[in-house]
């Protein structure tokens, strides 16, 4: 790296780190005073746990809330804008150095940040999200009554479909069970009072019911078998059946893709989850797009100062978030493909950034 690269890189990293720390501190103060203070006092949460909770929540704030991308934009505007105000950019351009060469260090740093953000969020970020959820469940949601809701599983092994009127997801037990399979020459049906997962035998067990076999050409059953306890006729384990219960932020991209393919085989509606999968890649990529916008705006607003820089940053961020969530919403509603939904905002901003950069006055 040249002297110019090191000079801009040090200033860029310094501004970015200070901005991210300020945003983290601001979020913690607001969240503590408005959302957590009452629960901490009510459940007597130890200070150490509060510290661990906010420490584990840091990756979510930095990456899912796009604080890192905003920090790249702010740092680019502040550093390059200040260099333009001090005539450093003008001197470099007069010396035959191109604008892209001048901004090489911030551009390279933004690329490293984008790639690093993805891998950090996909590894340590997933672990941090799981830790945050565990702390919330253990310390902030005590005495919450868990309702037993019904579940239905279609396209199970052997062609079976299972409906359970009341199911306890924590204990993996259910009441009022109805299971059926429709074949070419017969229809099988199981009605039982209880179903539960036996972890030692790795199978579902059904108790207190009856098994019916019907002839499709007739209106009465061919046989009736009383059930005391039998193994369920399907082999899917809970981790397969409830693979989509866990929030996508608590899974790596590879684990989420595996769960989605498994859920597709079970006939589940997975399009919204594929949107979240592709968003795992599109969110970190925004940091690289933001640096090109920062270069363009810094050259155009070189006399604006800090206030203008923060104003532009806020406006760009709000515009991006609006477009991003519009795309995500359209993907959830199956109006556009999941890949397009996750990358729509990035594509629009990349085109705008490319256009502005090539039109930047030098």
Summarize the structure.
By secondary structure, the protein is of the alpha+beta class. It has two domains: 228 residues, no CATH class; 79 residues, no CATH class. The protein is built from eleven helices and six strands.
Specify the number of helices.
11
Question: Helix content range of the residues, please?
Answer: 55-70%
Whole-Å distance between the termini?
Answer: 23 Å
Low-confidence stretches: none
Describe the sheet with the most strands: 6 strands, antiparallel
Rounded to an integer, what's the Rg over CA atoms?
28 Å
Descriptive keywords:
single chain, 6 strands, six-stranded antiparallel sheet, 61% helix, alpha+beta, 16% strand, 11 helices, elongated, 362 residues
Written description of the protein model:
With 362 residues, the protein is of the alpha+beta class. The chain folds into two domains: 3-142 and 271-358, no CATH class; 157-235, no CATH class. Helix content is 61%, strand content 16%. The chain is built from eleven helices and six strands. It has a six-stranded antiparallel sheet, with no helix packed on it. Strand 5 and strand 6 (221-231) form a beta hairpin. Helix 3 (67-85) runs antiparallel to helix 6 (104-140). It is elongated. The two termini are 23 Å apart.
């Amino acid at each position: 790296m040249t002297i110019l690269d090191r000079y801009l890189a040090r200033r860029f990293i310094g501004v970015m780190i200070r901005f991210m720390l300020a945003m983290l501190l601001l979020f913690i103060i607001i969240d503590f005073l408005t959302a957590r203070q009452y629960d901490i006092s009510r459940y007597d949460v130890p200070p150490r746990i509060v510290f661990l909770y906010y420490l584990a929540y840091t990756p979510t704030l930095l990456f899912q809330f796009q604080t890192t991308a905003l920090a790249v934009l702010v740092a680019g505007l502040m550093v390059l804008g200040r260099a333009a105000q001090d005539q450093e950019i003008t001197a470099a351009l007069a010396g035959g150095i191109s604008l892209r060469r001048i901004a090489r260090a911030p551009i390279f740093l933004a690329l490293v940040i984008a790639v690093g953000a993805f891998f950090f969020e996909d590894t340590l970020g997933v672990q941090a999200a799981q830790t945050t959820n565990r702390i919330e469940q253990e310390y902030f949601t005590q005495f919450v009554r868990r309702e037993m809701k019904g579940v239905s599983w279609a396209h199970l092994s052997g062609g079976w479909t299972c409906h359970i009127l009341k199911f306890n997801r924590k204990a993996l037990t259910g009441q009022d069970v109805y299971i059926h399979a429709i074949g070419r020459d017969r229809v099988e049906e199981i009605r039982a009072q209880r179903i539960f997962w036996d972890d030692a035998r790795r199978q579902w067990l059904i108790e207190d019911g009856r098994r019916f076999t019907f002839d499709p050409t007739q209106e009465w059953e061919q046989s009736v078998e009383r059930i005391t306890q039998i193994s369920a006729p399907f082999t899917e384990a809970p981790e397969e059946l409830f693979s989509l219960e866990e929030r996508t932020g608590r899974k790596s991209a590879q684990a989420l893709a595996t769960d989605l393919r498994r859920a597709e085989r079970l006939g589940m509606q997975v399009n919204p989850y594929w949107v979240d999968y592709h968003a795992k890649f599109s969110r970190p990529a925004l940091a690289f797009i933001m640096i090109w916008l920062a270069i363009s705006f810094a050259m155009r607003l070189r006399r604006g100062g800090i206030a203008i820089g923060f104003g532009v940053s806020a406006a760009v961020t709000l515009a991006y978030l609006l477009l991003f969530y519009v795309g995500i919403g359209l993907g959830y509603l199956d109006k556009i493909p999941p890949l397009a939904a996750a990358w729509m905002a990035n594509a629009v901003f990349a085109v705008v950034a490319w256009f502005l950069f090539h039109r930047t006055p030098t």
